[in-house]
Design goal:
The complex is a heterodimer.
Chain A: E1 5-7, E2 10-13, E3 19-24, E4 31-38, E5 42-50, E6 53-56, E7 65-71, E8 74-79, E9 88-95, E10 104-105, E11 109-113
Parallel strand pairs in A: 2-11
Antiparallel strand pairs in A: 1-3, 3-8, 4-5, 4-9, 5-6, 7-8, 9-10, 9-11
Chain B: E1 4-7, E2 10-14, E3 19-25, E4 30-38, E5 45-51, E6 56-59, E7 62-67, E8 72-77, E9 86-94, E10 101-102, E11 106-111
Parallel strand pairs in B: 2-11
Antiparallel strand pairs in B: 1-3, 3-8, 4-5, 4-9, 6-7, 7-8, 9-10, 9-11
Amino acid sequence: DAGVIQSPRHEVTEMGQEVTLRCKPISGHNSLFWYRQTMMRGLELLIYFNNNVPIDDSGMPEDRFSAKMPNASFSTLKIQPSEPRDSAVYFCASTPQGRTDTQYFGPGTRLTVL
Amino acid sequence: GENVEQHPSTLSVQEGDSAVIKCTYSDSASNYFPWYKQELGKRPQLIIDIRSNVGEKKDQRIAVTLNKTAKHFSLHITETQPEDSAVYFCAASWSGSEKLVFGKGTKLTVNP
């Protein structure tokens, strides 16, 4: 299995632009998580889905952030408009069917907003 | 909600020595405690985990202990090697939830 796939791996954009991050979970996994990692705040859970349905979005910073999971093999995290304070590494993780506690992380997307 | 405190934030040891990282949690309903290792520029990867019905678990040079009464758990690495240098995160989850709450991480440096 290829593991969790994220794209792009690096994104540099200017303040005010729209940014879309993409994630493909491991096939057969039924839960998907989006995290943001910064030096100051560590690993923060932004939102997670179970069977494509958003379960908990309490970690989404504000209305500029949105996430979707149109099917079991694809999810997006969108920031519009982006701001310099959004600069971070964004990780996607998924969990296997029946083992919802073990999370497998993707390689992450390093976002820089100028 | 659940809160996980992790100490120390940085730890430096000599190769061959042992390293211990400690975490405390706030929610007594927490029942799953994984540890992740993150090398520089890489993704967090699970190295060991323990559930609340077990007090200790060992896998070669790493072990995790859990004290449910005191609500703390620890990672022990023996005979440390330079390749153990990384950031280590503890986390906690509770029955009925798929969420993991992470500690802030410990940067471990093993000096040759």
